[in-house]
Amino acid sequence: MPYSPKFQIAGGGKLPYNVFDGENIKNKLLSMAKRLDNNSGYGISQTGRRLPAPKSPPTVVKYGDHYVRWKRKKVLKPNVVYSTKQGYSYTTDHYGRIVKVEASDLKYGEVKRNQYAQSNSG
């Protein structure tokens, strides 16, 4: 009976030999590092909360560029000013919270409700 070593990870089943190929491990580690680098959450505290960006004057960005992904959710970027299609202007602070809204002509209108957002609010 020939001996062929089987590798095993704690809590997992037996792994095939090609999982331990050096090229696969290298590529996997590089892709994980890229994902961590692309996470522009402005730092994460020890408890997992998002840390604020440094205080700076707000920069003007296009509508749609005012979001950043953090923990797979879209959140507002800190220190930005953006305008909507209706002409409303929003300013965010260093935490990404809206602190100022400018609307010269506020118009009320009917909007289709987002059922997913309604069920997850509050």
TrEMBL record:
Keyword DNA-binding: yes
Annotated protein name in UniProt: DNA-binding protein
A family per Pfam: Endonuclea_NS_2
DNA-binding is among the record's keywords: yes
Keyword list, A-Z: DNA-binding
InterPro entries linked to this entry: Bact_secretion_toxin (IPR051768), Endonuclea_NS_2 (IPR044927)
Gene Ontology MF: a single term: DNA binding
Domain Type VII secretion system protein EssD-like: 78-122
Higher taxonomy: Bacteria, Bacillati, Bacillota, Bacilli, Bacillales
